Automatic annotation (TrEMBL):
Family to which this protein belongs: Belongs to the peroxidase family.
Pfam families in alphabetical order: peroxidase
Signal peptide as annotated in the record: 1-22
Protein name per the record: Peroxidase
SUPFAM superfamilies: Heme-dependent peroxidases (SSF48113)
Superkingdom: Eukaryota
Molecular function as annotated in GO: heme binding; metal ion binding; peroxidase activity
Assigned keywords, A-Z: Heme, Iron, Metal-binding, Oxidoreductase, Peroxidase, Signal
Record organism: Trichoderma citrinoviride
The Plant heme peroxidase family profile domain, residue ranges: 83-315
Amino acid sequence: MAWSRRIAWAVSSSPLLFLANANYVWPNSRIDELEKLGALGIGRSFGAEWITNAYHDMSTPDIFAGTGGLDASIVFEMDRLENVGDAFRETLNILKGSHNNRVSMSDLFTLATVVAVGGCSKGKVIVPLKGGRVDAAGPGLSGVPELQQHLQTHTANFAKQPFDTSEMIALVACGHTVGGVHGVDLPEIVPNPAPTDGSKNDITLTFDTTTDDFDNIVAKEFIANVSRNPLAFGQIETTRSDFRIFNADGGDMISQIATFNDFFLDTCSTMFERMVSTVPRNAQLRDIKPLLRIGVDTRIASHPQKIPTECGISSFTVEIADSQTGKTSVHDTGRAGFSPPKEILAMYFLSRQSVITVGGVSQMQLNLTVAKVDGTNYTLYTGIWQRTSAASTHSFDIVAVGPDRTVSSLFDSWDDVPRE
Ligand code: HEM
């Protein structure tokens, strides 16, 4: 209990952390795309890779400058020796298709971690998902902890992240409950790292016997001295970083974790929330609300009205009427009403999609027209885009760059545009 209070203090006192629960008002271009992805799920699970990727990215904040933390700077740091392994490039390759100017790569890294932890724990550890992270434009500080370093180096390093000794032990146990050490990455500590059947070298020594499950078995096996964890009892003493870390407080924390699985799960939830909330000062984290789901028995009351273009809409409310109970409820997020994107309007009636033939190959051609609104004036912009197939889920961003700022708007899908 005393330990949990210490964590709460550390969260509120960290200069880097922005757990600000700023009120979310839809639409919010930094959050909405992430919310949609979170609702859909990602599909394939590379849980261990996603967790280690987020930790490596986050683990080198510059607390005084208010930079670094979870900011996707690892994208520029993959060649560093401290980032050995395929986990980082594979994570990037999986997620980059969902990256656009509405959702940052660091928010995607976070989403992947939340999905991985939730999936491997079978829903027992739900890390609150917030969005609004801002990606770094280049590499950040180096200094991700490495397995051959002394305990004092690790303790000092985690203190900068910032995690104290108990928290360091907990966070490492939370990370090392899934996955393991790959022979292809660290052949010096994986005996017989190369497969003998000529297949791709991916011999892995797992941290515990339940490598796909998010549970306290990594700690139980460590305490019982039956651990297979190569970072605890590997053949080379110098690279037994887990052994040194788990014993850093005389074994108190790792024993508690080993004894109480619920304590482990609660602690990991707190630790991971801290980890993904360590963000640069210029990022404002906001809650991700579940998408508004409308049950089969409800209908949205609509009051169709023609709005003259010179007036426009500054905000609107949504009224949901339950056809069975007759009850109605009005939704106006933030009590100010939903406000539609004002600056760029899609002109669907001036847009067309058609099929053309280029070099004997049929291609979809999209002619998009948008209006850039400036007070009561507007300017029409038209763009053409071609592709060989029409993917109905593809989003298009329309960006208008002006002397003072840039505004953008999104077509949510190819199907938004009328066919000829
Ligand atoms: C002193 C601290 C740490 C050291 C020295 C360390 C070291 C390592 C090493 C050497 C590997 C094997 C990499 C490979 O084979 O490619 C590994 C894997 C992993 N680490 Fe850590 N780690 C530390 C802390 C953490 C923390 C705090 C987390 C998460 C919160 C974490 C999550 C993971 C995960 C999930 C894997 C498995 C990756 C996979 O199977 O692909 N580690 N770690």
